[in-house]
Amino acid sequence: MNGVPIAPTSSPEFSFEVGDVVRLSLPGGGGYGDPRGRSPEAIRRDLKGGYITSESARRDYGFDE
User: Fold this and answer.
1) Can you give the pLDDT at residue 18?
2) Which of 21, 44, 46, 53 has the largest count of CB atoms under 10 Å?
3) For position 42, what pLDDT does the model report?
4) Residue 24, number of CB atoms within 10 A of its CB
5) Across the chain, what does the average pLDDT equal?
6) Nearest 5 degrees, angle CA 40-CA 43-CA 46?
């Protein structure tokens, strides 16, 4: 800026126009504790939201409803 060089960053720059849609997906963490101790309400909420499948609910959480 003002004639002073700026070192490149590890993140590229992007230009957007009005009306553009940007989606940013980041990996999630592995969680904490035994998955089978997760509350049934939380599992139902994730099923309803499409975050997990009924197969993964059974396999990962022991949830079969």
Assistant:
1) 94
2) 46
3) 96
4) 4
5) 86
6) 155
Q: Are the C-beta atoms of residues 30 and 16 closer than 8 Å to each other?
A: no
User: What is the spatial distance between Cα 4 and Cα 42, in angstroms, rounded to a whole number?
Assistant: 52
* Rounded alpha-carbon distances, angstroms, from residue 38 to 15, 21, 42, 55: 42, 34, 7, 16
* Global model pTM greater than 0.70: no
> What is the count of structural domains for the chain?
1
Residue 41's domain comprises 35-65
**pLDDT confidence band for 3 (50 / 70 / 90):** confident
Domain assignment present for 41: yes
